[in-house]
Amino acid sequence: MKFALIVPDGAADEPQPAADGLTPLQAARLPFIDSIVRQGVLGRANHVPGELPSGSDVGMMSLMGYDPLANQTGRAAIEAAARGIELGDDDWAIRCNLVTVTGGVLESYTAGHVDSDEAVRLIDCLQRDVGDESPWQFHAGVGYRNLLVFRAEAGDCGVGLTIETETTPPHDMIQMPVLGRLPRGPGASVLRDLMDRSRQVFAGSRGESRATQAWLWGLGQRPSLTPFLDQYGKTGAVVTAVDLVRGLGRLLGLSVIEVDGATGYMDTDYAAKGRAAIAALADHDLVVVHVEATDEASHDGDIPGKIEALERIDEFIVGPVHDHLARNGDYRILVSPDHPTLLRTRAHAHGTVPIAACGTGLSPGEDLHYDDITASGSSLLFDRGSDLMSWWLATD
Length: 396
Hints:
Number of strands: 15
Number of domains: 2
Oligomer: single chain
CATH superfamily of the largest domain: Alkaline Phosphatase, subunit A
Distance between the termini: 12 Å
Structural class: alpha/beta
Strand content: 15-25%
Helix content: 25-40%
CATH class of the largest domain: Alpha Beta
Strand order of the largest sheet: 9-8-10-1-11-14-2-15
Shape: globular
């Protein structure tokens, strides 16, 4: 039995006045996902408990079948795993975005999608500023997505950071004042100081970049997760361009497939990701294909871009992967976002997301369109989203 999970990140949304009152999923032409609904089931899942902030660190953990209330330790710690950065018991990983702040307002959480070469240069400038002997270590990633690690000295838990330290994701505060959204709580003053220092460093070394400072958020410590094979008895692989999902895959003992042309943005090579998923199924029981483009379109407030990304996921990933599965024995396929991301607010939100599943052992369903509104009428609801994986994998 083979399994494929397709994750259009942040696809769930609200009705859009500019789209004749339709949600992006309603407006999109999705013949291949609609085919899954006809052959199986349409339902809903809530992957982000109300007690936790909405984000892919929570939503993807739930989608993979792990209760985030019991297992979530912070986004950046998962991203550190993606980069092979080992964390000690008292170390902290912190997400370090390069952003644009003008007149006290956050204009861009990506610094205008700063390219990776420029980002590396700026991160190197920050490391030189704090010094190589500092317990603070900056790690360049891809574009605006970077990491800061605090290395606690032996017997010293360091700067007083705790799980009570609060930070604000910059993608949730676009065109909003930064005042009142700076790090707060235990140990937060040192994070604010580092952000202040980054403004001074970038002012003198910014070059052509739009980056005006680093924004620190999403701190966390090393998580401990039961390997997926031990938890569910399946081998698996992950196809993604995002460190968060790479890291979660590695922490769960899954293979992480790198794809040329996968960018984590709307210009990603959808077809290449579909081909990579099909190839991974040759020697894995399960493949997870995560696509960030839909989430990025929401953060950009780009309604046509979100609809186009959904249609490309349907055509170049869902269609080919489902066709391959259906021609090669017993299978199940599942489509589910991890959380809603609203075009109106350009931010993540809580709430259910639509799920579509079909395959061996699932009875044919109704001739319905896959979208948020239609799914809201379904009686199939996973209020604890982490239960979805067990249901989907249960074929007896």
